[in-house]
Each structure stands twice: as C-alpha cells, then as structure tokens.
Automatic annotation (TrEMBL):
One of its GO terms (molecular function) is serine-type endopeptidase activity. It comes from Pontixanthobacter aquaemixtae. This is Alpha/beta fold hydrolase. Keywords: Hydrolase, Signal. Residues 1-22 form the signal peptide. Residues 454-659 form the Peptidase S9 prolyl oligopeptidase catalytic domain. Transmembrane segments: none annotated. InterPro entries: AB_hydrolase_fold, Peptidase_S9_cat. One of its GO terms (biological process) is proteolysis.
Length: 661
C-alpha cells in the first residue's frame, strides 16, 4: 500500500508560521529572494520512487530519494557543491539508477563559456559514473557540450540510454590512436557500466538529433557553418524511414538569434510515422503534422486566431506528444489525448483557485502521473495521481517558505498606446490595497522574443509585498501574439516597443493607480534595456530606473556576440541602420534625468557584464545619478539566494530613497 507522503518531511523542518502583519525589508527579501525548495523532480519507471534536487546552501544542491511504498521519508544520497556549476536535473534511467546533468560556466580568458556533464548514479548514491566522454589530453578543443539524453528507454535493451556526444579532433603526432572525427553524434550508453557504443557518426554541422518513442534515431538537425565558423541562418531537418539508415531532407527554416520562419519539426510519433512541427498559419504559430516519407505534406493540427500555439505537451518516459498549449490571458492546454483532457479539466475545476495543471512525469505504464498545480497566488504544489484508484495525493510545495503568506492576484488588463492600439498586460496590486495613488513599478519583460504570462512571479510578489503596484506590459515586439505584434523585434522597432512601455506608466497615472511622483521602471535583460531606453523617449516619466543585466549598446552587443558561433545570428537580429545608435541608451546619455541603478553578474552569458560597466562609466562621466552593483561568479539569472536577497534589498532601498525625494 502506498503511504501518504507527508510534506513536513520534505520541508527539512516545521512548516513556516503565519506571517506577522508588519515585516522588515530584510525579512521580505529573505522570503522572496530564496531559491525554490524543489529545483527539479522526477518519477521512477514504476511510479514508486521520486528523486528531487533541493538547495543545500550557497552553490550547493542535494539529491533526495523518496520511497513512496516505504516510510515516504526523503533520503539524501548525494550533494554537489561547485561555485560556478550546479545540478540542474535528474531523470530515472532505470528503477535503480538515474542520470543527472551538471551545468556550469567557466572563463576562457575573459570570456565566460558554458559547459555541461552527464553522470549516472545509483538510487542509493553509489556507483557514480561519468557518462560524458572524458576529454583526451590530445584534444584540439574543449568539450563544451556534455551530451543530451534523447531516449531513456530503448526497445529490447536494459540499462541503456541514447545520448548525443560531441566529438573533438585530437593531435595525431606520434600516435595512430588519435580521433580524427568531429561534430555531434549519438552513442548508446550503459548507465551501469558506463560503456558506450557509437550509434550515429559525428556530423560537424549537426546541432541536434531526435529519437522516436522506441529509442530509434529518426531525425537529424543540421545548421551549416557560415563564414568564419559562425552558424548560418539556415537549419536543415533530415529524417530517416524506420527501416533505413539513409537521411532525407524534410524541411528547412531560416533563423536568427531568437526567431525562425518555416516548418520546425520537434517530435516524432512512430506509430503514425509522422513528425510534429511548428509553422505559421495566418500570421500565428501553429502545430502541424507531417508524414515521414518522401513528398509528405504538412497538415494543420492545432491553431488559434488570437495567439501562437507555441509549446508541445509531452508526458512519460518516451515523451509522448499529447497536445499543445498557448497563452491568452492565461496559458491554456489543448489536448489531443481525450483521457488527459478530461483529467486536466477535472483537476482544474476541483482544486482551489482553478490553477494551471501541468503533467511533469509519469510511470512507464502512465498509470501514475506527477502533476504540478500553480497559480498567480500559489507558487506550486506537486501531486501524484493514480489512474486506477482515481486518487490525488499532495507531495510537496515548490516554495514551502511562502506557506502562510497572502500573495497578490495578477489581473489581465489592456491599456491604450500613443497610437490607440490596445496593449495587453498584467496588473498586480499590494495585498489589501484599494488601488489608488500607489508607488508603482512598470516591469517590462526580457527577451524581447518572450512575453509575461499569468502565474506566480517572485519578483512581482516581492514588489507587491513592499507596497508597490506592478504593471507588466506585453509591448509590441513580444512573442505569443502573432507575427504582426512581434513586428521587426524590440530592437529594430524600439520606438514602438518602448513607446508601449512608457504608455503603461502613463496609463497607471491616468487611472489614479500610480502616484506620478512615485512611478518607477524596473527591467531584467531586454526589460533592463527597455527601462533605460524609456529615458531616451521621455526622461520625466519615471522617477527611478532599475536595469538588471541590461543591454545598453546595440553595436557593442553585436561586437561581443562575435566571440560566439551565434554572432552572425545576433547581427541579423539587431540589424543595420540609424536605429542602432538611436536605440542604444549608452549612446544617448544626455537624455537621462532620473537616477539609475544597474545590477549585473560577471558570468552573464546572455548579456556581457561590460554592457553595464560601460553604461555606468558613461553616466558617471556625464555627472548623472547612477549606482552600479556587480555580483561575482553569478550568471544572467542571478539565481543564488544570497545574491537575490542583496539585490532585492538594494532595489527597494534605491526606489524608496529616490521616489521619496
């Protein structure tokens, strides 16, 4: 009999007490700056065990195993501690062993470079095996890509997985054993012994492989190099028939650093011999199927006339496609599996607050499902659902440290831009507020090929807890709303995007929600760029500006990207023309009037830290009010509890000081 999993076991102590009415900045920053209690979780093939990763101190993660048929008490089996690397996920390969990924950043001179490694570990923490091929001392390069699992279960094989492998040429002087091959291939790897055999020979232009549900490699994705070793703007998708070893061209797409055009295959259904692919339909992204045969024509499966269908829904160890999703005011699931649709709809209606329902794991027979239910005021609870008994059992909260708190609702709104276009967004008010004459933050999202969605947001909730109203505009240039809304992207059409962002602030004032003397803007990544560039259009609107990991100079961004193989794609996304200088806050320092806070991590792979360093120097040289905080050994997400705690305190102090004045 399965024992009930008590959440208190998983919290590492007693449940958090109810929140006192008055709370200091330090106390609020502690709660909202804390990492999730559960960083990753997976269900074993039988459905009788779970493995999860939890924070265990600064730059430290621990893996816990829970026997759901035993005492249901978490058992720590390994701990990983590395300053610039972390355990990111663990997946069960068998009932007794699982495979974990370590991802990190190291510096190649002054340039940060990402890397990953895969290792197999016993469910009792024993017999750890490195699955990523070790780099030879004769290698002519660094093995950056440690491999991706493309199949956990292979038909007729036990203890084996399929994973990609990056091959690197070796020096051949004084040896006949040097490897002469390079590129990405596929190996069949035994997770017990660590032994491997080559399944797909390396291809120097391959960037991915896709296996079907039976563990057969059915698709290869190639992105040929352009001049100087840069990735080209063409990506080619090849398929092979079930009984063939030959590759045939299926589709080709055009790409830049954030977008694509064409038919983009992403998964395979071997029973029907089709691929699922995304492509445009009437200006919106849609889901298609295409036969894996010569001359196969795509068929439309799922589409909307008001939103991009932009995510697959997959479950189980074979990653079976069961539907797709899209976001309007909330994210909605469109299932092609009728049983799961009925289950998902029923759970959504039965659970408090009609939360978002996400299936995150399944036993091999799919009779046991692992589910997360979450909403704007609920950071998320994991559940197990047994199809046989139709019983739903709670497992553990994703952020137990927020138990007992009153969180703020996130309400969809629209506001008019300067040209009359209605711009969608989300408004969050402080708990218990009447929504009048409040200190207010406009919070544009990053990307720009992204969008904000309804759901829990730790940064928004921190600001609301500190008494701020928060408006998150999905400005033109955001993704999810079709090609016309995306336009030329938020850099090339910055006037439109930033105009919408400023329109958000003016609307908050016009509605009486915002105190015009206490209106600020805060942004992260592209959102940080938008916060800074808002000064170029209207320096008097926002009384304080906070930019976290921002792009500040488009020409500098182009130059920095040339250190990486994606440089040509970034160059295309930025484009050429007068907008490059006019759209760079770092080239328009004279426009700035409001005080600026810059925050950046020195291991940022998305936006080089020099973007903030140079911006700070230019503002300071022009006698503008600016403060710069740089965190060491931290990446773009600033995903460390002590770093986020310090950042939240600094931002709140900066805003309250400058808006009070």
């Amino acid at each position: 009999m399965r024992k009930r999993l008590l959440t208190s076991f998983l919290l590492g102590g007693a449940l958090v007490a109810p929140i006192a009415q008055a709370e200091t900045l330090e106390e609020t920053a502690t709660v909202f700056g804390m990492r999730e209690a559960i960083l990753d979780i997976s269900l074993s093939p039988s459905g009788n065990q779970i493995a999860y990763i939890a924070p265990a101190g600064h730059s430290t993660e621990a893996v816990f195993i829970v026997d759901l048929n035993g005492n249901a008490e978490p058992k720590p089996i390994i701990q990983f501690s590395e300053e610039n690397a972390e355990l990111t996920e663990c997946d069960w390969a068998t009932e007794t062993r699982f495979v974990c990924e370590v991802a990190g950043i190291l510096k190649d001179g002054s340039t940060p470079v990402s890397f990953s490694r895969l290792l197999a570990i016993g469910a009792d923490g024993s017999e750890a095996k490195l699955l990523t091929q070790r780099t030879s001392s004769r290698a002519l390069g660094f093995r950056q890509n440690g491999g991706d699992i493309i199949a956990l279960d292979l038909e007729g094989e036990q203890d084996k997985i399929l994973m990609t492998r990056q091959w690197i040429k070796e020096v051949s002087i004084n040896t006949r054993l040097a490897n002469e091959e390079e590129g990405l291939g596929v190996d069949e790897v035994d997770v017990v012994s660590g032994r491997r055999s080559k399944l797909e020979r390396p291809d120097e232009n391959a960037v991915a492989y896709i296996a079907d549900e039976d563990g057969r490699v059915r698709m290869k994705v190639r992105q040929p190099d352009a001049v100087g070793g840069m990735l080209s703007d063409r990506r080619l998708f090849y398929f092979r028939k079930p009984d063939s070893r030959s590759w045939e061209l299926l589709s080709r797409i055009e790409v830049d650093s954030q977008t694509y055009s064409g038919l983009y295959p992403v998964a395979i259904n071997s029973a029907e011999n089709i691929a699922y692919a995304f492509a445009s339909h009437n200006g919106y992204e849609a889901l298609y199927t295409i036969p894996l045969e010569e001359g196969g024509e795509p068929s439309l499966l799922l589409s909307r006339e008001d939103a991009d269908v932009d995510r697959l829904i997959r479950i189980g160890r074979d990653r079976r496609v069961v539907g797709a999703s899209y976001a309007t005011e909330r994210r909605e699931n469109a299932y092609i599996d009728t049983e799961l649709k009925t289950l998902s709809d029923g759970l959504r209606q039965a659970l408090p607050g009609k939360p978002l329902i996400t299936i995150i794991g399944a036993s091999s027979d799919e009779n046991i499902l692992m589910i997360v239910a979450s909403s704007d005021t609920d950071p998320g609870m994991t559940y197990l659902y047994d199809k046989g008994s139709r019983r739903l059992e709670p497992l553990l909260p994703l952020r137990n440290h927020m138990d007992g708190r009153t969180l703020s609702e996130m309400k969809p709104v629209t506001f008019p831009a300067s040209d009359g276009v209605e711009v969608p967004g989300y408004l969050t008010l402080p708990p218990g507020s009447d929504g009048k004459n409040l200190p207010t933050i406009v919070l544009p999202h990053g990307g720009p090929s992204s969008r904000d969605e309804w759901g829990f947001d730790w940064l928004v909730q921190f600001f609301a807890a500190r008494g701020y109203a928060v408006l998150q505009p999905n400005y033109r240039g955001s993704s999810g709303y079709g090609s016309d809304w995306f336009g030329k992207n938020g850099f090339q059409a910055w006037q439109t995007a930033i105009g919408d962002v400023n329109g958000a602030g003016r609307w908050m004032v016009s509605q009486g929600i915002a105190d015009p003397d206490k209106l600020a803007i805060v942004g992260w990544s592209y959102g940080g760029y938008a916060a800074l560039q808002s000064q170029v259009l209207d320096a008097s609107l926002y009384k304080a500006v906070v930019a976290i990991a921002p792009v500040t100079d488009l020409e500098q961004l182009r130059s920095e990207s040339m250190r990486y193989t994606s440089g040509r794609l970034v160059d295309s996304f930025i484009g050429r023309g007068d907008h490059v200088r006019a759209g760079s806050p770092g080239r328009n320092i004279d426009a700035f009037k409001s005080p600026v806070l810059l925050v950046h991590g020195d291991l940022d792979l998305n936006v080089d830290v020099n973007q903030s360093r140079v911006m700070h120097d230019r503002l300071e040289d022009a006698d503008k009010a600016v403060k710069y905080i740089e965190f060491e050994n931290v990446a773009h997400s600033l995903d460390a509890t002590k770093v986020r705690y310090e950042m939240l305190k600094e931002i709140d102090t900066f805003l309250s000081t400058n808006m009070a004045n």
